[in-house]
Amino acid sequence: MNFDPVFALSCNAALQVLVSSLLGTFMLIPLQPWGKKLAARVNMKSLLATHMDWYMLAFMQWGAAFMMDRWDAARDPVLALLLMFGGWTNALPYLLRGFGVNAFVMGGNTLQRVSAGIAGLSVLAILVAWTAIIWRMIAIS
Q1: Which is it for the CA torsion 127, 117, 96, 78, positive or negative?
Q2: How far is CA 106 from CA 76, 111, 116, 120, 125, in A?
Q3: Which domain range does residue 98 map to?
Q4: Residue 73 near residue 140, CB atoms below 8 Å
């Protein structure tokens, strides 16, 4: 079975939109009279940032899928996998901060350090993938 980067990016982006929509639905619970106890336990601004970030990262993947579909030079399974990894993990610091873990700082307990490391790798994955895509696009022009 061949790995189709366009199909994989498109499906992954759609899944991210679904998960982000489910998170948005979850975010309504603390706003309800019966969900006030949860409101004190979560950082709604951080969850909102996660919610929006996953939408933006889904659009990033659809953009890459479009470029890979349109120009063969940009089509690369490794780049698609890097973008898919980054698409999920780049919002991790916001998500974890919503539950009290500051994954923006490489310090603190083990969970915080591992989370910050994964977040750093996600940024690197996205930067490497987009640099390669743009480099290939420049090369064919």
Answers
A1: positive
A2: 32, 10, 5, 10, 18
A3: 5-139
A4: yes
Quickly tell me which residue has 């750093």 as its tokens.
Answer: 120
The predicted pLDDT at position 60 comes to: 98
Q: Are 68 and 76 in contact (CB under 8 A)?
A: yes
Are 35 and 87 within 8 A, CB to CB?
no
**Cα gap 88→8, rounded to integer Å:** 14
Q: Report the alpha-carbon distance of residue 101 to residue 7 in Å, rounded.
A: 34
pLDDT by 10-residue block (mean), the chain, 141 residues: 94 98 94 87 90 98 98 96 97 89 88 92 98 94 78
Global pTM value: 0.90
Residues 18 and 15: their CA atoms lie apart, in Å, by 5
Contact 84, 61 (CB under 8 A): yes
Over its C-alpha atoms, the chain yields an Rg (Å, rounded) of: 17
- Specify the pLDDT at position 137: 92
Number of domains in the chain: 1
For residues 79 and 63, is the Cβ–Cβ distance under 8 A? Answer: no
- Model pLDDT, residue 121: 97
